[in-house]
Design a protein that fits this description.
The protein has 71 residues and is mostly helical. Helices cover 66% and strands 6% of the residues. The chain has two helices and two strands; from the N terminus they run βαβα.
Length: 71
């Protein structure tokens, strides 16, 4: 098991929960990556979330600017 949460990660829900906390930058405190591969995956997922949020904000601001220009 590459992650620790006080017991084995027995369901896909545990992985979804961990992934959601990484993507939203909440930072999981009850699940910890133990192996090198798990830590690398966590870092990759955190980096992807930064780009995703940046693109989302850019699209929303662009849309707001277009709506304001058309008004």
């Amino acid at each position: 098991n590459s992650f620790q949460n006080g017991g084995p990660l027995s369901s896909n829900w545990d992985f979804c929960y961990y992934s959601f906390t990484i993507l939203t930058a909440l930072g999981p405190t009850d699940i910890t990556p133990l192996s090198y591969d798990a830590k690398l995956l966590s870092l990759f997922e955190a980096a992807i979330s930064i780009f995703f949020i940046s693109i989302l904000i850019s699209l929303l601001l662009n849309k707001a600017g277009q709506d304001k220009a058309n008004a």
